[in-house]
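Annex B. Sample input.
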Amino acid sequence: MNCKLLSLLALLVLALSGAQSASAAIKCWKNHEGVRECGDSVPPEFAQQESETKDKHGVTIGTQGRAKSMEELNAEQAATEQARLDAIEANKRAALDRALLDTFASEDDLVLARDGQIAHLESQIRLTEGHIEKLKKNLDQLIERAADVERRGEQPTAEMLSHVDNVRGQIAENEKFITTKRQEQGDIRTRFDADIARFRELKGVPAEAAVPAASSAAATQP
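Annex B, continued. Sample output.
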């Protein structure tokens, strides 16, 4: 019985000691003027600020960080989103680099591919230019016929005028087609210039080296 009683008394003393230690702990914070204050608990108006917990000897035994403002939380969220987008872009860039190296074994392959695409569009342009020349001759004939009718003192028929408008429309559409193909040629040059520069970078070729110009046939433009 004595041993049990002594054990209970020891546990009671430890519990009371812990309670006294807990009650002896104090909180310290700074008020609105920046003056340090301490007490049993942090006032509600300062609860969001940084604070310290000290024992009865004045030793810091814990800290409470300042709550982040809405602006800080928004900034962190924006930074996290930007990091996510940067990672996506980096993965995309890596995939494009792999595709570039897998598709072309050398810079010459890139140049040949570029010139081939430009030359293909150039052949379409030449064919269209030839078609435009035929349409213009047809238009001249239609206009001449309408003029003959007017010289006889008559009015050109609606069908004749419709033919004239139709041929003019075809000429405009074909000229628009040529403009589009010229733009596509420019886009191809721009894209391959970037691909060749990147290919050299990946292969460790000096950046100051000039990108090979397109062949004379492929580079032909009005």
